[in-house]
Design a protein that fits this description.
Elements: E1 7-12, H1 16-28, E2 32-38, H2 44-52, E3 57-58, H3 62-66, E4 72-75, H4 82-91, E5 95-98, H5 106-119, E6 123-125, H6 133-143, E7 150-160, H7 174-189, E8 196-204, E9 219-226, E10 231-240, E11 245-252, E12 256-259, E13 269-271, E14 274-276, H8 283-286, H9 288-302, H10 313-332, E15 336-337, H11 338-341
Parallel strand pairs: 1-2, 1-4, 2-3, 4-5, 5-6, 7-10
Antiparallel strand pairs: 7-11, 8-9, 8-15, 9-10, 11-12, 13-14
Helix pairs in contact: 1-9, 4-5, 5-10, 7-10
Bound molecules: nicotinamide-adenine-dinucleotide.
Nicotinamide-adenine-dinucleotide binds at residues 12-18, 39-41, 44, 61, 76-79, 81, 99-100, 126, 128, 178, 283.
Length: 344
């Protein structure tokens, strides 16, 4: 593709994050164009397309596959549709950006990886923390040997409260498949070359104990042992009343790096009660620059301006294997060998 061309992108799934992604592509990228919005829900695609002045509204994604003018898709539908959509898009020759989780089983992950391999398109998965400046600098410090031998790691996701969701509408195991999957990818990525060996997970409904009996889980702690000896902890909770709290840490025999800050800026307000500071309340605010960087990378790679790096389908499969091991661990209240879930 010529570097003068703009990548023609269709959004599939015009919900909360899809709308934010579309706006970033439309307003912040100079070499990409949002040419279609697809969503089966009546009105969803039209609302977003109107807002962004995009002419093409689609309810059946098959229309996207058939259109030779569309180069790439951004998939932001609910998780259970990711595999069939990514597979069909790849087989239709479209480059694929797929929100996490790319798949809900190893067999599904293999289907997407195979389709991408067969068609030769690019596939990038939405692990946006890798594109955050602090997290990227943290990985750089690991690569430069500034942390030394990695011994302890930590990654946490505390979603902003008050949590107003309906437990009955949260698919089972969401805390592992959709929340902690970010932390699993982060931990694997911050410990390059190492394989996760064993996982032990505990989870509960502490935010909504009334929903415990129906299997709802909103709080979890997962420990991961790696084959280079590193021990990692990932934790999540749906209801951090003080804001959207995403942090990471790598500790080794030469030092430590910490990443992420719930505080929105270095502003501090001094008043009669003491000092106060604003905190992040939304992923779309805290990670706006990281989302932009991930789509810039995807666009540039699809246009051939720079080589494609990651996160790949195999990265998504590796994080999924840890999530599946964590689910298995909760079911049996016992450590689970990751190898039993998938060869990594
Ligand atoms: N990387 C991140 O930071 C991040 C943040 C939030 C959500 N997500 C992920 O993005 C995905 C969407 O999350 P959301 O919060 O925007 O959900 P949402 O429910 O707000 O939006 C989903 C949209 O997809 C549409 N849809 C349903 N079935 C579809 C299909 N078969 N094809 C196309 N569209 C379909 C729905 O009508 C809805 O408009 C989830 O997988 C979630 O885990 C990622």
């Amino acid at each position: 593709m010529s570097s003068k061309k703009k990548l023609q992108i269709a959004l599939i799934g015009a919900g909360r994050i899809g709308s934010s992604h579309a706006e970033i592509i439309d307003r912040r990228l100079h070499n990409a164009e949002l040419v279609a919005v697809a969503d089966p829900a009546p009105g969803a695609a039209a609302r977003l397309a109107d807002h962004l002045e995009c002419d093409r509204i689609i309810t059946d994604p098959a229309e996207v596959w058939a259109d030779p003018g569309i180069d790439a898709v951004v998939i932001a539908s609910p998780a259970r549709f990711h595999t069939p959509l990514a597979e069909s898009a790849a087989r239709a020759g479209k480059h694929v950006f797929c929100e996490k989780p790319m798949a809900l089983s190893i067999a599904e992950a293999e289907r997407v990886i195979q389709a991408v391999k067969d068609s030769g398109v690019h596939l990038q998965v939405g692990f946006n923390r890798r594109w955050d400046r602090a997290f990227a600098a943290g990985r750089d410090a690991v690569d430069k040997g500034q942390i030394g031998e990695v011994q302890l790691m930590r990654s946490l996701t505390r979603d902003p409260g008050p949590w107003g969701g309906d437990p009955a509408k949260v698919p089972q195991w969401t805390i592992f498949y959709e929340t902690l999957i970010h932390d699993f990818d982060t931990l694997l990525w911050l410990n390059p070359g190492a394989r996760p060996v064993e996982v032990f997970a505990q989870a509960d409904a502490l935010v909504r104990p009334d929903a415990r009996a129906s299997g709802h889980l909103d709080t979890a702690v997962v420990t991961i042992r790696f084959d280079n000896g590193a021990l990692a902890v990932a934790e999540a909770n749906f209801n951090a009343l003080y804001g959207y709290d995403i942090r990471g840490e790598v500790f080794g025999n030469k030092g430590m790096v910490t990443m992420g800050d719930v505080q929105k800026s270095n502003l501090k307000l001094f008043g009669a009660q003491g000092i106060s500071a604003d905190t992040w309340r939304l992923d779309t605010q805290e990670f706006a620059d990281a989302y932009t960087a991930q789509f810039q990378h995807f666009t540039d790679a699809c246009l051939g301006i720079r080589p494609f790096s990651a996160p790949t389908g195999r990265d998504a499969r590796a994080a999924l294997a840890v999530a599946l091991a964590a689910i298995e661990s909760v079911k049996h209240n016992a450590p689970v060998a990751v190898e039993r879930i998938a060869a990594l």
